[in-house]
Amino acid sequence: MRNAWSGHTFPHPPGRRRWMKDAHSMDPERPVQHILEHHRDLGPIFEIVVFGQKFVFVADAELAAELNDEKRFVKANSPALEGLRGIAGDGLFTARNDEPNWQLAHDLLVPAFTKQAMQRYHPVMAETLDELFVVWDSGDGRVDVGGDMTRLTLETIGRTGFSQAFGSFTTDEVHPFVEGMVTALTLGRRKGVIGALPGARILERRLDRRHADQLDYVRGFLDDIVRSRRTAATTGGDDLLGIMLDQAHPVTGQRLSDENIRYQILTFLVAGHETTSGALSFAFYYLVRHPDVLAKAVAETDAILGDDPDATPSYEQVPRFRYLRKVLDEALRLWPTAPGYARSPREATTLGGRWTMTPDDWALVLLPLVQRDPAVWGEDADVFDPDRTRPRLASTAKPFGTGERACIGRQFAVHEATMALARILHRYDIAGDASYELTINERLTLMPEDFHVTLTRRRPATGGTPLPAVEDAPAAAAVCPYTGSTSG
Ligand code: MNH
């Protein structure tokens, strides 16, 4: 059996049953929160066996650092990722390391995330925010943070990557593509979980049949995006879609197939918005919970943007919001919206000096635990504090993953989220609901649930607010603002 760990059994939740194993001690609706609430005492590495599948979790920064070592380990496709292959195929996120389409698509699409590319996306990101502000200004000030951040990030990736708008700001209804996508994703996750059970194929086919209409709609929608670009009078374009349709690999001359392009569009539309909207929502959650942090953040926006509430930062100004960046990093430390990634050894090895691990074995780096490891972050590891100094082994805080298969959209996400935070905090006074208790929706990614704030237009303070002190900020602008703190 795959992931047998040479027969080794790790610590696991108490009360394991003979057939159901650990099913009673996992929560399919909120697996990550359940582990944080109930299983933090299982130690640095533990297992949960459900539905005939062994999941090995790493909670410890030292072990995570080992798994992050690209010389010894590579990305593994967890069952959850494999479950998505029905709709995302060998798209970038779900491709297996040895599939030729990974390298091909990676090489073709890296240029879509360079500095020059980001400079092209910048005004589109700014315009999309303007449209959100129009909606907010015509409302009563009460805002569903998760919902509106999702609208914002979906519009942004749709427009920047594919010249595809979703009308998120003109209607209250969810775009049918989004609905279909969510169905497809939920389906994928369920398939991933049941995959190891006898009879899974039959169940899977039944699930597919039940949702056939929605899945067909998604497929048709993706085909339309491709078709309308191909028939457009002006072909070309240097956005994601343009690159995929028009460019050949500079060395091999190979091109992406139509099927693979569909997989990539879906991959980027999903990966390009879910995680970023969650990150923004958690940042707002912590900001309204910490008035001192909020005040510092607002002061930074006034110092950089001045007294015009509609001021838009230039591309070059965005990385100067160093304190906002710390807020974002700290939110992603506590609640990494993509809560983990799986790793396998390149060849048989020993993990932690003790456990034999073969290329058939994989472990999940469980980021919400690794990034709160008290050995690294101290006893107050669970506390939100953007000013904390990043200690030894802080390099295991990797909300964007690690190595060759790390997030290709990291700069995109950080630029988009920083600008959104800056402009929103500069433009509105923001008040939370004191009685709100954080509950997190775990769909594919993490997202605060039913979190609302009240916005009122503000008039930024005029004139020379001094920049708030930001400790250990890189001294010279020569340091790339994006490759600094959290990953490597
Ligand atoms: Mn993103 C891979 C987190 C924003 C597109 N992303 C990953 C991985 C993590 C991750 C973790 C690695 C998964 C693994 O090892 O199995 N991503 C994030 C977070 C944000 C994010 C926390 C926002 C915050 N991601 C984005 C954006 C885009 C994007 C924005 C696109 C515009 N991510 C990807 C793609 C991959 C990926 C594509 C797969 C890369 C590869 O394997 O080559």
Automatic annotation (TrEMBL):
Q: Which family does it belong to?
A: Belongs to the cytochrome P450 family. In the N-terminal section; belongs to the cytochrome P450 family.
PANTHER family membership: CYTOCHROME P450, CYTOCHROME P450 12A4, MITOCHONDRIAL-RELATED
Instruction: Please give the residue ranges the record annotates as the region Disordered.
Output: 1-21
Task: Provide the GO MF annotations for this entry.
Answer: heme binding; iron ion binding; monooxygenase activity; oxidoreductase activity, acting on paired donors, with incorporation or reduction of molecular oxygen
- Upper lineage: Bacteria, Bacillati, Actinomycetota, Actinomycetes, Propionibacteriales
Name any cofactors this protein relies on: heme; FAD; FMN
What species is this protein from?
Mumia zhuanghuii
Protein name, entry field: Cytochrome P450
Q: Which residues bind heme?
A: C407
